[in-house]
Amino acid sequence: MRSGFQRRVALASAAGLAAVSLAAVSVVAPASAAASGLPRLDITGVYVTGVSSGGFMATQLQVAYSGTFDGAAIVAAGPYDCGQGTVTDFASCDIGASLPALEKQAVTWSARGLIDPVSDLAGKPVYVYHGTLDPVVSSIVSGAGVAFYQHFKADVEYHNQDPAGHGWPTPDGVLPCSVTAAPFLINCGDDPEGQMLAHWLGSVNAPHKGTPEGTLSSFSQDRYAPGGSAPALGMGSTGLLYTPPACARGAACKLVVALHGCLGGQYLTGEEFPRRGNLDTYADTNHLVILYPQAIASLQPYNPQGCWDWWGYDGPDFAVKKAPQMVTIMNMVHALGGRPGPRPAPGRRQPGWWRG
Predict the structure, then answer these.
(1) What is the dihedral of CA 143, 80, 78, 65, to 10 degrees?
(2) Among 105, 127, 283, 303, which is disulfide-ready with 288 (CB 3.0 to 4.6 Å)?
């Protein structure tokens, strides 16, 4: 489908982060018990968000499976298929130079059935966050992501005023706003999670404070991976799921897929992303189930910083529906009860239209 994807490029040179030796990785074991499968829940809507490589993957999922995902929130990332089979040059996402080509490619793939119809993006709520001090993803690349969604008439809200570095902004962040460093949880004095959820849902209840009401549990990702081995795809054998009590008891709930960035997976940071990312707090008060798929560092496939595949380390089809990692995540979504439903009329989103 494309040439050059077999180029094995160290992500450090692509993302501007320090190279990490796999031998030096300090693995944090999950606190949960032995992993099992995912529960079947009453899911009435599906959304996706992510930061850095997880942001690029969130865009891929939203575009490739636009019939399933009702909205997206993209943090510190860029447009669909920005990697183009190599991550050596972020300038390939320049708005003036190649964004029209990316848009045309999406239309072509849509017509061929490799991704869902791009018309499904019209009216879908998309929240984009980018810090003014991000040294990894430039404002040009982030802006190209915004323009891509706008081209297909998505309902885009762009938050690009914070003096933020490269990371996930959260009121519970452990790093100052401008810092770019592990665990990439930064505090900019605001609440982007509340903003993204309000943009998706129209309104949002205040987050729960104090001890979480729900349960953060471990599940087997191997069960959902093509071939039965998530590590063979650059993913961990286990992932995490946060389930509020009401959702566990059978209440109608919405599903949010939340994707960590490079060097931000459970194998390095434990449960910091779900516990400090400010999504679980809103889950308790808004009937949200949060799915945290996990990527890992590996030499085969070559993924030394535990990034999601947004440039092709798993093969040339990484950005279309048959991409191994996306198939794995979609198998998880379907197992939980999320699946495509009837489409709304063109225009602004219609809250509540999705019924799995």
Answers:
(1) 110
(2) 283
